[in-house]
Write a structure and sequence with these properties.
Elements: H1 2-21, H2 25-46, H3 51-71, H4 78-81, H5 84-102, H6 113-120, H7 123-129, H8 141-149, H9 151-173, H10 180-190
Helix pairs in contact: 1-2, 2-3, 2-10, 5-6, 5-8, 8-9, 9-10
Length: 191
């Protein structure tokens, strides 16, 4: 039993150390999300209270909203947690969404995001990041799929992920202790 715990504890501690030493706040957030979901699963298996899902959902949602808005430079921790790259990725994703809405049936095509980027970058973006900055990717899988393949494929992609998320949350919320491996797979997919 101790060897089993050490087998899982060592990679977790290594991830924490590497995230901290490289100042990867997203890595720390992923670790916290995973630890929170493991705590949730353990609480659900041990206690039968129907309040547990609501408490974790509300508490986790507030925590994620606070951290995410802080990464964007707003919120209570905005001054200390602001992430320049997250704002930039938000711009890239928005250009992908605009490209999808401009060509909803076919998108801009594979390997053509850079043309959409050049077309949709606006004056605000150029003033903030300069005119020479370019990218060939939306830095967001849903936005990239929408930009390259259009609205129909984007909606199918989102529906597939929502269905998987629903099923994963159902597995994680189960009190059945015999589904430990299925819970592990669901946890990995969510995190």
């Amino acid at each position: 039993k101790l060897a089993n715990r050490a087998f899982f504890l060592f990679p977790a501690l290594a991830m924490l150390f590497l995230s901290w030493s490289t100042e990867s706040l997203q890595g720390l957030m992923v670790f916290a999300l995973g630890a929170g979901l493991i705590l949730y699963m353990a609480s659900r298996e041990k206690y039968s209270s129907s309040l547990i899902p609501y408490l974790f959902f509300i508490g986790g949602g507030l925590a994620l909203a606070t951290v995410f808005t802080s990464f964007l430079g707003a919120g209570p921790l905005g001054g200390s947690l602001e992430q320049y790259t997250l704002k930039l990725r938000g711009w890239y994703a928005s250009f992908g969404i605009w490209a999808m809405l401009d060509s909803p049936l076919t998108g801009v095509g594979v390997d053509n995001y850079v043309s959409a980027f050049r077309r949709f970058k606006n004056e605000d973006f150029v003033l903030q990041y300069g005119s020479s900055l370019t990218t060939n990717n939306a830095h967001s899988t849903p936005a990239q799929i929408g930009a390259t393949f259009g609205l129909v494929v984007f909606l199918l992609y989102c529906l597939l992920h929502l269905w998987i998320l629903y099923r994963a949350l159902k597995v994680i919320s189960s009190r059945d202790t015999s589904q430990i491996y299925l819970k592990g797979i669901a946890l990995l997919w969510i995190v």
